[in-house]
Design goal:
Elements lengths: L1 E5 L2 E5 L7 H7 L2 E5 L2 E5 L4 E12 L2 E11 L4 E12 L2 E11 L3 E12 L2 E11 L4 E4 L3 E5 L2 E5 L1 E5 L4 E12 L4 E11 L5 E12 L2 E12 L5 E3 L1
Antiparallel strand pairs: 1-4, 2-3, 3-5, 4-5, 5-6, 6-7, 7-8, 8-9, 9-10, 10-11, 10-12, 11-14, 12-13, 13-15, 14-15, 15-16, 16-17, 17-18, 18-19
């Protein structure tokens, strides 16, 4: 049985959260979906919406042009200038797909911000429970300390631990550091440092170091010691 609704606010329980499968299922509230046209198949659990789609649930807000969600499989997809937010995490992309109860995949000109960290790339996989982010097609992470650019970047935004691989480029204007390597491991807390591995080059104050492995110790005084 299919039901067609026009310009009405439709309320579903957490089991039928369109895009924030992890948001709703974990918190057990109600989900509100608003769009120009909504179609719901009660037998298959499939929901489709088009035209100014907006979803609200327990602090999560998502908007887009078109959306689909299956209440039975808990998989959803929203397309068309997508914008979303949950807590201090905000993001935008051309499309967003849910993967499991707490993970999303954003694709197409992705921009995401959590606290002082900004991620940009062609695609982003993010887990709201663990704060773990992956830019599988490359991109940039910007922080107060500088930027990391590479062919692939992944790590924990909460713990500030990242690994970058492939054409790694790190710039820190506050520390006057410019560095390159094949792989880089960044630790922002607990003995802050960057470990550069493979064709590593680090430049600071007109000084240049090269080697297979270099470690940049990031002091609290805003300086970096290269070893």
């Amino acid at each position: 049985m299919k039901k067609m609704l026009k310009r009405e606010l439709v309320t579903f329980f957490a089991a039928s959260c369109l895009l924030c499968g992890g948001f709703a299922a974990a918190q057990g509230g109600q989900t509100q979906l608003d769009a120009q046209t909504i179609e719901y198949n009660a037998q298959t659990g499939q929901i489709t919406a088009s035209g100014g789609v907006t979803m609200l649930h327990a602090g999560a807000r998502l908007t887009g042009a078109n959306a689909s969600y299956n209440a039975k499989t808990k998989q959803g997809h929203i397309t068309g200038n997508v914008h979303g937010s949950k807590g201090d995490m905000k993001f935008s992309a051309q499309s967003v797909t849910t993967q499991g109860p707490s993970e999303i995949i954003a694709s197409g000109n992705v921009y995401a911000q959590k606290a002082d960290k900004v991620l940009r790339g062609a695609s982003l996989r993010y887990n709201f429970d663990t704060s773990y982010a992956v830019l599988p097609q490359g991109g940039t992470i910007s922080m107060a300390d500088g930027t990391i650019t590479a062919n692939k970047i992944e790590g924990n935004l909460q713990n500030e631990q990242f690994q970058a691989a492939g054409n790694v480029h790190i710039v820190s204007q506050t520390r006057n550091v410019d560095a390159y390597s094949d792989v880089a491991d960044y630790y922002g807390k607990n003995d802050p440092r960057i470990i550069l591995t493979g064709n590593a080059v680090a430049m600071q104050n007109n000084n240049e170091l090269r080697g297979n492995k270099l470690t940049l110790y990031l002091g609290n005084d805003g300086k970096a010691a290269v070893k």
